[in-house]
Each structure stands twice: as structure tokens, then as C-alpha cells.
Write a structure and sequence with these properties.
By secondary structure, the protein is an alpha+beta fold. It contains 3 helices and 8 strands; from the N terminus they run E-E-E-H-E-E-E-H-E-E-H.
Length: 152
């Protein structure tokens, strides 16, 4: 009745996820500089490695997903993970958004479960946090309690 191509893998395609969550597909392999020239101030990152961008001469391999993210304005803004964790503990209240799920660029098996991305210039910080389902339930119940107080 119709052809289904959902299970077919695109072998010669390099997928790039932008900071907006949009995915662009390009015929690969290609060099990083070919893509970066069109996006000044941005860099290409491998999955699970949001702190070290790929060099201009490196090849983007077909069949892989990469991330196109803005470069940090100041590389020394958070020099170590302790500073990141301290910053995250001061951030209250925690707000969860489904929009940020497409922007997760850190593989939790390779490092910390916390990531703070640079502000895009509008005064908003995005904090990526990987937590267990029990912790998520606790956070959501706290938010519901806050909402109940506001309504009464």
C-alpha cells in the first residue's frame, strides 16, 4: 500500500543538531571548516564532548550526529567542574522544559551529569541536569506543592 523508509539508515549523511534543536543533514563526509564558514561564532562538537570543539581540518564522518553550538564568549567562565556545581546549587527554583531535551549534548557515561551552557546573550542560562526518576518525581511534587500554595 505504500513504501516505508523509516528503518533505512542514511549512510552518506552527516547529521548536525543546531542549538535551536533543528537537525540539518548534509552529504558526507565533509570537513568542519566547510560548515563553520556559514556559522561564525559557532563550533562543531562530537556527542558527549561539549567542552572541546572539533578543529577546522577534521572530517565529519557519515552516519554520525554532531552538534553545532555557539562558542563560549569567555572560555574561563567556569574553569572547573566544582565551579559549575557551585553555580548550579545557587540556581533556584529548578524549572524543567521539554524544549531543552533536544539540546542535551553530554553523554552521562563520559563525565559529570551536569552541564551549564553559555548564555546566548538574552540573560537566560540553560542548565542540563541528569537525574534519576525518583529525583524527578521529587522535583515535580515540589513544583505541584508550590502551585497549590499559589492557587489558594
Amino acid at each position: 500500500m505504500g513504501n516505508c523508509m523509516a528503518g533505512v539508515e542514511r549512510i552518506n549523511v552527516v547529521r548536525i543538531m543546531m542549538d535551536s534543536g533543528r537537525i540539518i543533514e548534509l552529504k558526507g563526509p565533509l570537513q568542519v571548516r566547510a560548515l563553520i564558514n556559514d556559522f561564525p561564532g559557532y563550533a562543531i562538537f562530537r556527542r558527549g564532548s561539549a567542552t572541546s570543539p572539533l578543529m577546522d581540518h577534521e572530517q565529519l564522518e557519515s552516519g554520525r550526529l554532531y552538534y553545532l553550538l555557539p562558542m563560549a564568549r569567555e572560555q574561563s567562565e567556569f574553569p572547573n567542574s566544582e565551579a559549575i556545581e557551585e553555580f548550579a546549587t545557587r540556581m533556584t527554583p529548578l524549572r524543567l522544559s521539554t524544549e531543552t531535551s533536544s539540546e542535551l549534548v553530554m553523554n552521562t557515561t563520559m563525565g559529570s551529569s551536569l552541564e551549564v551552557l553559555p548564555s546566548p546573550g538574552n540573560g537566560v542560562w540553560r542548565v542540563k541536569l541528569v537525574i534519576s526518576s525518583d529525583q524527578l518525581a521529587e522535583v515535580l511534587s515540589e513544583q505541584l506543592e508550590e502551585c497549590d500554595v499559589c492557587v489558594d
